[in-house]
Amino acid sequence: MVKLSTLRLIIQTVCFGLIVYLGYFGVRLIEWNKISLVLPTLSCYYTDHRIAQCFLRALQEGLSGGWKIAYTGLIPSIVLVAILGLIFGKAWCSWVCPLGFLQDLFSRIRKLPGIRHYNLSDNQKLVTVAGRWFLLSALVVLAAGIGIPHFFMREFQYDLVTPFCQICPGKQIFAFTQGRFREMLTVDTISTLSAVMSWLAIVFFFFYLATTSFIRRLWCRLCPMGAMLGLFNRFSLLALRKEGKRCTKCGICQRSCPTQVNEVYEEKEKERIVSSDCILCFRCIEMCPEKEALRAGFLKSTIVRSTYKRFLKSTDINVKNGKRKLSSEQNQ
After folding, report:
1. In the chain, which ranges are E strands?
2. Which residue of 32, 102, 127, 172 shows the fewest CB atoms closer than 10 Å?
3. Can you name the CATH fold of 237-331?
4. Contact, 90 vs 226, CB < 8 A?
5. pTM of the predicted model, to two decimals?
């Protein structure tokens, strides 16, 4: 029985290699009838020889281009991302996204010396919710404002054409992963506003580095792409389900969740667990000791379910001389 966390790490590693490095082997931006492949994950514009485009970039370019030029070009991207969201929900964040993968790597490194993570309080969690919707609203308003003819934002079209991409930590992170170290701290001095956006990008980069090791998946709780994908969790074909009668309220699912989702623990009646914060990593299934209390389903089929055997393997419980030794992984 392969641990779910190990399987997810393998898939994340493969996706990271494809998104970040496949272009170096001759594969270029994948297109069909001049329509580029758009993914609901950070396939960053600042990645050399990228094979796909990040939906946030396509959204900003479409809105800032104006309705006469680019609005109709947004339709294929929106339709494709909607389809992918309806199929997989927010699983893109936990199984595919390169920035999510790097956050998980930082968490694994933190665990090696036994350093515990920091859990956000309820008020702090509300701040992250407000933060991601603020970032999403800002990028839409700024980009759309530039695209509206005769609107005052038009004068900033060269400084704010893709406002979120200009401050996203991926701008520095992908430069680092591809060895372009000089670009990481480069400040655009074309205008004062461009310089401000460059400095904001550096601030967000160091914020990402400083917090991601000690707060699990913090950037996922702030990411505008995650905010949009979270809307599909209620309808996606891939879903997390719970058999309330089998739950013993041990609380392991709540403690092991990287985004501190409470609904898995609290839900008693409804079978489907719906939370816009859930990234469908299925860590709760891996850690649940109760047989079939939690399961991941695709349509009516069950992909994986919680079992006591899986729990023993995932928590590394050793039974010796009648005593059980439980690793601290479930709390990390």
Report:
1. 31-32, 35-36, 38-39, 53-54, 238-242, 294-298, 301-305, 318-320, 323-325
2. 32
3. Alpha-Beta Plaits (3.30.70)
4. yes
5. 0.87
